[in-house]
Write a structure and sequence with these properties.
The chain has 3 domains: 114 residues, Urease, subunit C, domain 1 (Roll); 267 residues, Alpha-Beta Barrel (TIM Barrel); 76 residues, Dna Ligase, domain 1, CATH 3.30.1490. 30% of the residues lie in helices and 21% in strands. It has 15 helices and 23 strands. It starts with 12 loop residues before the first strand and ends in a 13-residue tail after the last strand. By secondary structure, the protein is an alpha/beta fold. Strands 3, 4, 5, 6, 7, 20, 21, 22 and 23 form a 9-stranded mixed beta sheet that branches. The structure holds zinc ion (ZN). The site of zinc ion (ZN) has 6 residues, from loops.
């Protein structure tokens, strides 16, 4: 299907000093549009209602009952009968850091209804932050882009290759200074990836010191925790402790009970989060709607003794066996991609342990671990503390990269009725916007940015699979970013209204 723009009967050019979120001057060039007959689900969790929304100069100019908004002369009237109209989705954990420059139209993202992506998660961020955000502005992608500063990124800069140890006070001061610079250049907070190099080797004290600096700039702390498996509860406790001692909000990334040893622990984890909030802290989490994760082969062996058969056997045991591990990025032998570790072992006539050690000797691989349990995923999804994030992005080898948000709306809301539509929309809009302090979006209200999604609740569905992870979703009818249509009739329109979003000092 070819890209298409609607007829523009009236184009209003307007230079607007945006005061809504103090985001600075922006130039908006988009027609006045009246979206009518939609079921408006405003992102707050309030019940949907049949109504209409006036979009002018990239902002929402009016919201009302059917027929209540005076028709401005020349406005384009768009009939959204049968569709749900919501704020654009804010993906607080997105890995399109490089992909957004290769594919600025971001079809796999806007086709899900994503209008703002947040990069820099898991401890790895662009650097320098200011240069990255300037590059985004120069590129003008279809979506807005914000970033966090990565703990791993500043740790690598301060310690170089000698990172397999705790940092000295001097090095922590160096990292702290780098966090300060990043925050002043527009980062929204500090992210960590404590299962990965080099974050794995950091002490809690190091993280508290850096988080304090992020707090001083109004930021939050987001963590891929130290452990999502045997040590899950300790890892949650550490994340909460960092929030308490550094005095800032905490976001737990892609919350999960990562293997059989912690299946059934979701309620306990959520209890810890609820208790932290009851004690006055601000702790939330995000989740992708799948029972399989994607990471590096190294993550399976917690002791990091990748050539020790006992350690490897223990690691494979803990995830429930080699058939739960799918190799998806093994460069020395790409024909093995898609196979389970158990299948590769059979093909090679080796044990699973020897196969693992062989793959690691040859550089490792991206893997998908089919190790989560539906009941835990459900429990996290029902929680008021948990929002949706993709942990994917452009070119993701996991179907979450192209399917996350429609999968929640299709599989979890419509097919299973696990959560209500309003709750699912809140998880994708106002919750992440609030966590990011993006007060100009995430809710349909007068004065907010006209980042909007119209979808068919009866058909919306993800299509991406582990064997075809890039398949775009269906049922997302139209997506607007700052009032400009970026997705319509199953294709990108070619419009690129996106820009960098910078946290204010
Ligand atoms: Zn992660």
């Amino acid at each position: 299907m070819t890209a298409r723009r609607p007829a523009m009967w009236l184009i209003v050019t307007w230079t607007l000093l945006s005061s809504a979120a103090g985001l600075g001057a922006q130039t908006v060039d988009s027609p006045t549009r009246l979206l009518v007959n939609a079921t408006v689900v405003d992102g707050t969790g309030s019940p949907g209602f049949t109504g209409e929304v006036l979009v002018r100069d990239g902002l929402i100019a009016a919201v009302g009952d059917p027929g209540s908004i005076p028709r401005p002369a020349g406005a384009e009237v768009i009939d959204l009968s049968g569709l749900v109209l919501t704020p654009g989705f804010v993906d607080i954990h997105n890995h399109s850091t490089g992909g957004i420059f290769r594919d600025p139209l971001a079809a796999t993202q806007v086709s899900q209804g994503i209008t703002t992506i947040v990069v820099g998660a898991d401890g790895g961020s662009p650097w320098p932050i200011g240069d990255f955000l300037d590059r985004i502005d120069a590129t003008r992608p279809a979506v807005d882009v914000a970033t966090l500063v990565g703990h791993g990124t500043v740790r690598r800069a301060a310690l170089g290759d000698d990172f397999r140890r705790t940092a000295t006070d001097l090095e922590i001061a160096d990292m702290t200074e780098r966090v300060a610079v990043a925050m002043s250049e527009g980062a929204y907070g500090l992210s960590s990836g404590l299962e990965y190099d080099p974050g794995f080797y950091s002490s809690t004290g190091e993280l508290v010191a850096l988080a304090r600096e992020a707090a001083a700039h109004g930021g939050f702390y987001m963590s891929h925790m130290r452990d999502e498996e045997e040590g899950l509860l300790d890892a949650v406790a550490e994340a909460i402790r960092i929030g308490r001692e550094a005095g800032l909000p905490v976001q737990i990334s892609h919350i999960k009970a990562g293997n059989a040893s912690v299946w059934g622990k979701a309620a306990e984890v959520l209890g810890m989060i609820a208790a932290a909030n009851a004690a006055g802290l601000d702790v939330t989490a995000d989740q992708y709607p799948y029972t399989a994760w994607q990471s590096g082969l190294a993550i399976v062996v917690r002791s990091r003794q990748f050539q020790n058969p006992d350690s490897v056997a223990a690691g494979i045991d803990a995830i429930g066996g080699g058939e739960r591990l799918q190799v998806v990025g093994y460069d020395p032998e790409p024909t093995l991609n898609g196979l389970r570790l158990s299948e590769i072992a059979t093909r090679k006539g080796l044990s699973e342990v020897d196969t693992y050690m062989l793959l690691m000797r040859n550089g490792g691989s991206r893997v998908i671990g089919h190790t989560m349990n539906d009941d835990d995923v459900d429990e996290f999804m029902r929680s008021r503390w948990v929002m949706t994030s993709s942990d994917g992005g452009i070119g993701s080898p996991h179907p979450r990269g192209a399917g996350t948000f429609p999968r929640v709306l299709g599989h979890y809301v419509r097919e299973r009725g696990l959560i209500g539509l309003e709750q699912a929309v809140r998880r994708a809009t106002s919750m992440p916007a609030r966590r990011m302090s993006l007060n100009d979006r995430g809710v349909i209200r007068v004065g907010a940015r006209a980042d909007l999604v119209a979808f068919d609740a009866a058909t919306v569905a993800d299509r991406s699979t582990f064997s075809d992870p890039g398949l775009t979703a269906v049922g997302i009818d139209r997506v607007w970013v700052a009032g400009e249509l970026v997705w319509a009739e199953g294709a990108v329109t070619g419009a690129r209204p996106g820009k960098a979003v910078r946290a204010l000092p």
